[in-house]
Design brief:
Oligomer: heterodimer
Strand order of the largest sheet of chain A: 1-2
Order of helices and strands of chain A: HHEEHHHHHHHHHHHHHHHHHH
Structural class of chain A: mainly alpha
Largest sheet of chain A: 2 strands, antiparallel
Number of helices of chain B: 5
Structural class of chain B: mainly alpha
Distance between the termini of chain B: 69 Å
Distance between the termini of chain A: 35 Å
Radius of gyration of chain A: 21 Å
Shape of chain A: globular
Shape of chain B: elongated
Largest interface: A-B, 27 and 32 residues
Number of strands of chain A: 2
Helix content of chain A: over 70%
Strand content of chain A: under 5%
Helix content of chain B: over 70%
Chain lengths: 492, 127
C-alpha cells in the first residue's frame, strides 16, 4: 500500500470525482469530497515524511519502467507543493457546503464538488508526475475544471471572466505543449529525468532555446506574472468565493512549481540562465509586478479585486526570488509559495464569511463590520498583517529570507525595493481595516451576525497557521532550504 | 530551396499557427475566437504528427519483412491533445451560449462596454 502512495495521491480525488454523481445529495457529496481531499492530504504528508527520510521516490506506473513508461517521481520539492495544495484544499472544503448554499443553485452543487475534485486532481497530478507530456494533460484537467468553476459565479461577469481565462489559459497550455514537442523532437524522450540527461548534448541548438522560450511564456501566462496577468483579477473577483479561496491559494503555486521544475531539474541551471537573460527579465517583471499591481490594488473598490491584484504582486515577489538564481533566493521563493498560500487562503476564506453574511465584497459595504463580525474582521487583520510582512507572521518569514538573499548577492537596492513594496501593501490593507473598524455602519442597513462556525473554523485554522509558521519556522524553512539545495546540487 | 521545401511541414505549422493566433487577437466575435483557438491548436497537432514521420518508413503496423517504421508515439500523444482540444472547444461554446443569454451579445467590445457601464453605475449608486 505504501509503495503505491504516489499514484494514490492523484487517483483518490480522480475516482472520487465521478463517484459524487452516485451520491447526489449535496450534503453527502460534500462529506465525501472532504473525505477524498483529506485522504489526499494524509497521503501527501506520508510522502513528504518518506522523502525527507529516504530521499526521492520513483514510482513506475503500471509496472512499465521509465523512460518508456510514465514515472511518478516524488522529491522534496513536489512533496512540499503537494502538501500545500492538498492541505489548503481540505481546509477550504470544510466551509464549502455552508458557503455554496448561498452562492450556487442547489442542482449545481453536486457538480461543483465534482469540478473541485477534478481541479484538485489536475494540480496534484502536475506536481507528482515525472513525465513532461503528463504535465500537459493534468494542466488541462485542472484548467478546464477551473474555467467551469469560475463560470459558476452568480454575477454574469463570471462568464466573461471565465471565457477570457479559457482563451488565455489555452494559449498558455498550447505554448507549453509546443515546448514539450520541441524537446521530444530533439531528445526522443518525455521522461523528465531522462530529458535532463539528454538535453545537455543538444542544448546548443536553436530548437531547444525555442522550446525553453515557449515553455517559459506558457508557464508565465498560467502564473499570472505581470504583464500576463489580465485574466486573473476578474476571474478571482466573480468566481464563487470558495473557488477563489481555493485557487488564490493553490493555482499560481502549481505554475511556479512548473517553472522551477523545468528550469532547474530539466533544462538545468547552466542552460536556463545563459540561453536567455532570464535573471534580468524576471527581476524587471517581478519588480514591475510588485509595484504596479500593488498600486492598482490600492484603487480597487471590491475587496476581491484588492486581494487579486495583491496576488499578482505576490507572484512578483516569488519571481524576484527566482531571479536571484542562488539557493538562498530559491529558498525565499519556495517559502513565499508556502506562506502566500496560507495568507491568501486565510484572507479569501474570511471573504467567504463576509460574502455569506453581507452578500457583497465591496469595500463600502464593510462599514461597521468590525463590531458586527469581530472574528472575521480580526482574521482579515491578521491575514493583512501577514501580507504586509509584520514579524510573528509568515509574511515576515518569506520577506526576511528574500531580503537576506538579496543582500547576500550584494543587491542592497533590491532589499530596499522589496521593503518599499510592503509599504504599498500597508496602504491597501489599511483601507479595508479603516472602513471596517472606524466608519459607522450605513444608516438603515440591517446589522449582520458573525459568520457561522462552519466558516469561522477553517478561517481561523488558516489564520493560526499564519501565526504558527511565522513563529515556528523549522518545518517550512527546513524543507524549502533542503529542496532548494538539492535543486542546485543537481548540476554541481 | 531546402529551407522552404525540405522543411515545408514546419512552414505549414507556422502559417496555421499565426492565422489562428491572429484570429484570436483580432476578432471580437467570440465564436470566431474559438475557431481561431482551434486552428492554433491544430497547427501544434500537425507539428507533432509530422515530426513522427521517419523518411522511407511505413505506418507503424507490424508486418513481415519491414524494418523501418514511423514513430507512433507523437500520434498517441496528439490523440490525447485532440481530446483536450475538443473539451476546450465544447466548454468555450457552452460559455458563449451562457454569455449570449446573460448579455444578449457575443461581441467582445459590446460585452466589455456593458461591464464597464455596470461598474460606473455601481459607483454612482454609492455616491
Amino acid at each position: 500500500m505504501l509503495v503505491h502512495l504516489p499514484i494514490l495521491q492523484v487517483i483518490v480525488p480522480l475516482i472520487a470525482a465521478p463517484a459524487c454523481l452516485i451520491l447526489r445529495r449535496p450534503k453527502l457529496v460534500w462529506l465525501f469530497a472532504l473525505l477524498a481531499s483529506s485522504l489526499a492530504f494524509i497521503i501527501s504528508m506520508l510522502l513528504l515524511q518518506q522523502v525527507m527520510a529516504t530521499g526521492t521516490i520513483s514510482y513506475e506506473l503500471g509496472g512499465w519502467s521509465p523512460p518508456w513508461g510514465i514515472e511518478y517521481r516524488i522529491d522534496k520539492l513536489n512533496a512540499f507543493i503537494a502538501l500545500i495544495i492538498s492541505g489548503i484544499s481540505t481546509v477550504v472544503l470544510l466551509a464549502a457546503q455552508t458557503s455554496i448554499e448561498k452562492e450556487i443553485p442547489k442542482d449545481k452543487q453536486t457538480l461543483f464538488y465534482i469540478l473541485y475534485l477534478l481541479s484538485l486532481t489536475g494540480m496534484l497530478g502536475i506536481v507528482t508526475t515525472g513525465d513532461a507530456f503528463n504535465v500537459f494533460v493534468f494542466l488541462e484537467i485542472s484548467s478546464l475544471s477551473a474555467y467551469s468553476l469560475i463560470a459558476l459565479g452568480k454575477d454574469r461577469r463570471a462568464l466573461w471572466a471565465s471565457f477570457q481565462y479559457l482563451i488565455m489559459g489555452t494559449i498558455g497550455a498550447t505554448f507549453i505543449l509546443i515546448g514539450i514537442g520541441l524537446m521530444y523532437q530533439m531528445t526522443g524522450t518525455l521522461n523528465m529525468a531522462d530529458l535532463a540527461e539528454r538535453l545537455p548534448a543538444v542544448a546548443e541548438t536553436r530548437t531547444i532555446t525555442t522550446a525553453y522560450v515557449f515553455f517559459i511564456v506558457g508557464v508565465c501566462l498560467k502564473l499570472a506574472l505581470f504583464p500576463l496577468h489580465f485574466w486573473l483579477p476578474n476571474a478571482y473577483a466573480y468566481a464563487p468565493s470558495i473557488v477563489t479561496a481555493f485557487f488564490a491559494a493553490t493555482s499560481t503555486k502549481v505554475a511556479a512549481y512548473l517553472l522551477i521544475r523545468f528550469t532547474f531539474s530539466i533544462f538545468g541551471i547552466s542552460f536556463s540562465f545563459t540561453a536567455l537573460p532570464i535573471e534580468t527579465m524576471f527581476l524587471v517583471m517581478g519588480l514591475l509586478g510588485i509595484f504596479i499591481a500593488s498600486t492598482v490594488a490600492i484603487y480597487q473598490d471590491n475587496i476581491k479585486h484588492v486581494f487579486a491584484y495583491s496576488s499578482v504582486a505576490q507572484v512578483g515577489y516569488m519571481i524576484v526570488g527566482f531571479s536571484l538564481s542562488t539557493p538562498a533566493g530559491l529558498t525565499a521563493m519556495l517559502l513565499h509559495m508556502f506562506n502566500h498560500a496560507l495568507m491568501k487562503g486565510a484572507l479569501f476564506m474570511a471573504l467567504v464569511a463576509i460574502m455569506y453574511r453581507v452578500g457583497s465584497s465591496k469595500i463600502t459595504d464593510l462599514q461597521g463590520l468590525g463590531r458586527q463580525m469581530p472574528l472575521t474582521m480580526a482574521a482579515i487583520v491578521v491575514g493583512g498583517l501577514s501580507l504586509i510582512g509584520v514579524p510573528l507572521t509568515v509574511g515576515f518569514v518569506s520577506k526576511w529570507y528574500l531580503v537576506v538573499a538579496a543582500i547576500e548577492k550584494g543587491w542592497w537596492w533590491l532589499a530596499g525595493l522589496v521593503l518599499l513594496g510592503s509599504l504599498l501593501a500597508v496602504i491597501y490593507v489599511w483601507r479595508i481595516v479603516e472602513t471596517a473598524y472606524f466608519k459607522a455602519p450605513v444608516l438603515g442597513q440591517q446589522p449582520v451576525k458573525e459568520a457561522p462556525m462552519a466558516i469561522l473554523v477553517p478561517v481561523w485554522l488558516l489564520v493560526s497557521a499564519n501565526v504558527y509558521f511565522g513563529i515556528d519556522t523549522r518545518l517550512s524553512v527546513e524543507i524549502a532550504a533542503s529542496a532548494a539545495k538539492s535543486l542546485f546540487g543537481v548540476v554541481q | 530551396m531546402t529551407m522552404i521545401l525540405g522543411l515545408y511541414n514546419y512552414w505549414v505549422v507556422i502559417v496555421l499557427m499565426m492565422i489562428g493566433f491572429y484570429i484570436i487577437i483580432a476578432h471580437g466575435h467570440l465564436i470566431k475566437k474559438i475557431v481561431g483557438l482551434n486552428i492554433f491548436q491544430t497547427s501544434v497537432f500537425i507539428f507533432y504528427i509530422s515530426v513522427g514521420k521517419v523518411e522511407g518508413a511505413t505506418a507503424p503496423i507490424w508486418q513481415e519483412g519491414i524494418i523501418l517504421y514511423s514513430n507512433p508515439l507523437p500520434h498517441v500523444l496528439i490523440l490525447t491533445a485532440i481530446v483536450v482540444g475538443i473539451a476546450t472547444t465544447a466548454l468555450g461554446l457552452a460559455l458563449i451560449i451562457r454569455i449570449k443569454e446573460a448579455y444578449g451579445s457575443v461581441d467582445e467590445d459590446e460585452i466589455q462596454t456593458m461591464d464597464n457601464q455596470a461598474m460606473v453605475n455601481q459607483d454612482k449608486e454609492h455616491q
